[in-house]
Amino acid sequence: MNGVTTFQSGYPLGFTNATNNIATYAYGSNTRPNIVPGCNKVIGGGIFNRLGTAEKSANNYFNTGCFSSAVPLFTYGNESRTDNQLRTPGVANYDFALYKDTPIRENVVFQFRVEAFNLFNRVQFGSPNTVVGNSQFGNITTDLNTPRLLQMAGRITF
Questions:
Q1: Three-state DSSP class for residue 47
Q2: Which residue, 3, 51, 55, 114, is the most exposed by fewest CB within 10 angstroms?
Q3: What are the residues whose beta carbons fall under 8 Å from the beta carbon of 7, sequence distance 6 or more?
Q4: How far apart (Å, rounded) are the C-alpha atoms in residues 58 and 139?
Q5: Nearest Cα to Cα of residue 15 among 134, 150, 155
Q6: How far out from the chain centre does Cα 90 lie?
Q7: 95 vs 14, 53, 147, CA distance in Å?
């Protein structure tokens, strides 16, 4: 029996504005949004939220009301380049293999294997849209992995 388990937290999100108030040819960068003071950007709870607050989902991954695209001309917003409070969805993946060696002769062994990749068929979501002013802002519209894959194999070693 073999197994590989992968747990990985998500990467920090980087936010930009749909409209650029800084000349990209001069500075090589996009403007960032302003953060509304005192606003909680994180939507918490997940599946087991017992407090009755808003639930995080693929269509509402973070609090989009905390971001304002109204940035004065020729300035960056007050949001940092990457936001450590808001991260992409993490990874939880399980791969599993079961195999049996059966001797046929003194120097000949038959091996039968059954392997499962993404054993529990968990989806790995892509990054949410982080462009303030985009119609999909705050929504996750992609997945990054494949569904469960099972394979069987036979091998003769001599």
A1: helix
A2: 51
A3: 90, 91, 92
A4: 6
A5: 134
A6: 5
A7: 31, 35, 12
Pairwise CA distance, residues 36 & 75, whole Å: 17
In the structure encoding, which two tokens stand for residue 89, read together? Answer: 């969805």
Q: Give whole-number Cα distances, 11 to 92, 102, 128, in Å.
A: 14, 46, 11
Q: Helix, strand, coil shares of the chain as percentages rounded to 5?
A: 5, 35, 55
Question: Phi, psi at residue 113, to the nearest 5°?
Answer: -125, 145
| Residue 74, C-beta contacts closer than 8 angstroms, at least 6 positions apart | 21, 22
**pLDDT of the chain along its 158 residues, tens only?**
999 999 998 899 999 888 776 665 555 567 888 898 888 888 864 444 444 445 677 788 898 889 987 777 777 788 888 888 899 988 899 999 999 999 999 999 999 999 999 999 998 889 999 998 888 999 999 988 899 999 999 999 99
